[in-house]
Amino acid sequence: MGIQIDVVVAYPINDEMERVLGLAEAVGEPVTVTFMWEAGEEAERAVLVPAATLALWEHWAPTACPMRDSGNETRTVTEEPELAHPAEYGPFTLFRRRAGGRTAVARQGVVVAELLNPDEAHCLEETARNVRQGFMDPKQKAAFQDFLARQAAPGSQEPAATPPAPS
Hints:
By secondary structure, the protein is an alpha+beta fold. It has helices at 16-27, 51-60, 118-133, 138-149, and strands spanning 6-9, 31-35, 44-50, 87-89, 92-96, 103-107, 110-116. 30% of the residues lie in helices and 22% in strands. The longest helix is centred in the last third of the chain and has 16 residues, at 118-133.
């Protein structure tokens, strides 16, 4: 990922979530967050992706990335996460999706970021970058083809003839 910032959050209270989200919005890049839950539970890593960045990734990588299990072998494949009310933390509301395991972060009714599994975030970013680098809009493609048409043939010393102007 472009910028990786590791932030440890004990629990998303006391403005910790606001600081992390503000950081992600300020740099416009994903922020890796490690949640240290109470009662000695295993730490959970997620990537907080600003909504605009995620929209861009999903535009260029419209197919879903394969999800790898996060190491929780005790959970059966058919078991779904328990449905719960959205969790409110100060000005933020966290909406945990049952399908896919993402958590949408909303502020004043607007989704501003999403928490993704680190593997999914990496896959989305890589796929989006690869697809976008291979894409040319029609004007750019026509200009490139015109440029190639004017290039000299391999092994030739003279430039190729200029094609006639379209009428």
